[in-house]
Amino acid sequence: MAGTDAEGYGGFHDKVNNHYFRTFGSAVLIALIGTGIDASMPKSSTLATQETASDAARRNFAEGFGRVAEQTISRNLNVQPTLEIRPRYKFNVLVDQDMVFPGSYRN
């Protein structure tokens, strides 16, 4: 069974929520996290500079946190639009197969 309009065309047409704030908000968060990770990475001026244990820990934490945060936030980038049907929306139901009501119409 499918929902139709008064002329028999399939589908509903009402308010569409494209989730723009959720999608673009996620993109901004990914960019901010990437910037924070770059800022937290220790910078060395020469190749002979030895990395300290705290620098290595900070770098590993930043990279790991960045990967997890990006994967989590990236889920919001693939959100399908939502069709919002308001109350009292009129529609027809097209019945394209037999409906059986056992017991309802017995004598």
UniProtKB/TrEMBL annotation:
Keyword Transmembrane helix: yes
Cell compartment(s), UniProt: Membrane
A Pfam family recorded for this sequence: TrbI
Positions of transmembrane segments: 20-37
Keywords on record: Membrane, Transmembrane, Transmembrane helix
Membrane topology per record: Single-pass membrane protein
Keyword Phosphoprotein appears in the UniProt entry: no
Gene Ontology, cellular component aspect: membrane
Superkingdom of origin: Bacteria
Family stated for the protein in its record: Belongs to the TrbI/VirB10 family.
Protein name in UniProt: Conjugal transfer protein TrbI
